[in-house]
Amino acid sequence: MSGESETEALDELARRRGFYFQANESYGGVAGFYTYGPSGASLKRNVEESWRERFVTREGNMEIDAPTVTPEDVFEASGHLDGFDDMLVECAGCGESHRADHLVEDATDIEDAETYPTDEVEELIAAHDITCPNCGAPLEGQRVEEFNLMFETTIGPGSGQPGYLRPETAQGMFTEFPRLKEYAREQLPFGVAQIGTGYRNEISPRNALLRTREFTMAELEFFVDPEAGGPDLDAVADVSLPLYPASAQAEDGEEYVELGPKEAVEEGLVAGEWVAYFLARSKAWFESVGVDMERFRFRQHLPGELAHYAADCWDAEAEVGGDWIELEGVASRSDYDLSKHAKHADDTFTVFKQYDEPKTVERATVEPDMAALGPEYGSAAADIASALADLAARDRSAFDGDEVTVEVDGETYTVEKELTGFEVTEETEAGRHIVPHVVEPAFGVGRAVYTVLAHAYDEDEVDGETRSVLRLPPSVAPTTVGVFPLMDKDGMGETARELAETLRQAGFDVTYDDAGNIGRRYRRQDEVGTPFCVTVDYEAVEDGTVTLRERDSTEQKRVDADALPGILADIRAGTRSFDEL
Length: 581
Ligand SMILES: Nc1ncnc2c1ncn2[C@@H]1O[C@H](COP(=O)(O)OP(=O)(O)OP(=O)(O)O)[C@@H](O)[C@H]1O
Hints:
This protein has 581 residues and is α+β, with helices and mostly antiparallel strands.
């Protein structure tokens, strides 16, 4: 199937079978907002649960649940207020808004247009005769502007306090760090995760769940000691990473490198063992929820694309509808976030790192003679005193001579050493405060759900008819099993209803269906990805055996109804397969 028809067929099935649809359609709907229907909400919940199990429970990490409305100060510190922009160009013809960088990328070989200044993007639009994708009018001469993607709100009545809907969940983990480090008993490394809603006022929402204005993210902020060693990469040695390095992209090649996590670090391709570790864990997780590994890669950010604080960043990408889309970013963020908050907030964003043995250290301090500094330097005296204190802590050798020079507000002052009260004392130190570095795997849940659906979607032929089928893994499928009586008579309906109830009580998502012929009932379940269907026929009423039909092969086997809970649990957990029954 071509890329476009794949996504069109999927969107149609998603509406019809209750996976997702445009929100508030009865009021005309607003672009970029989707409602997950019953099947989609269940699939999404299973994907989130599986993420939680993989990245929180099994890793021994913490999880928090922070508010989505956030005061302005937080985003001033994080840099979002100034820098969380996309490039906007509006069509003079039809008034439609577009991502200017995306239009340039579509029309040229440029892959990182978002890093170009707006005037250069305007020139590129003119040079390549780029037109409005909606109405075809030329966009030459239209202004390209930076547009901040955060939704603004007011907290409280009246003029209130300015606030924003969070564009990512990450800031919650950073602003609460002073408390979180206490729960971690200041022992690095430790991870804090959050699954929650993020909001971005996207200029041009499109491709269903891929670019929406409200979406669920699953993020892990992993705090590490930059001086300590990394994780044991043997634990993920069985995962090979399909890497698409920046160098291959620059040459415009499709040169993938398949390497184990350890080799990727040793060859200098992936900066840092923690990044390699999370790439491996991510790949295994994407595979477990049903992303097709033939259509999956890790793309390294190009140098211009990298945030200035980031040492390295890799995006997990999947091919959907002919395009590569970003599902997750794994970034090495250094101490950028915590240092920023330390500057703006009134708290400590460090951890106390204890030495193996207490150390004797020399400490240089000053105690300036203010009675002498005041008359000599006037209003600058207090600033000079604090500059002297900074200097003593930073560079003791500056006090070697008879005079000390400091700079305050661009002015240079020379102070007699005698007046500074400079002193060196010896102290015993048990440890010191360090700012942890952050490695962040950030996932978009909606994009993962959409990719899982797109990769699961298939059409084949059954009994001479084309069937649409979602080949979803049993662990994420919205319904685990459909239970049908052959007909609702001669005890078959009752037996089937009882079986459905037993399976529900055993914790399975069950659909009971007695409407229409059995082939049609199978087809309905195939379309929502139900991996198994159980049919209760005459024999079942007599001897307690039922037929178990597998979705993908459409093969049927007779099994004891009593054994079903065990069989289904094993298959969902991946410890037994249908073939082994
Ligand atoms: N508008 C959106 N709709 C749905 N998911 C999104 C959206 N924006 C980001 N995400 C998801 O959140 C994850 C982390 O966000 P991040 O800030 O790294 O995205 P991004 O680089 O801004 O994405 P893009 O370049 O595609 O806009 C992304 O990998 C993606 O899965």
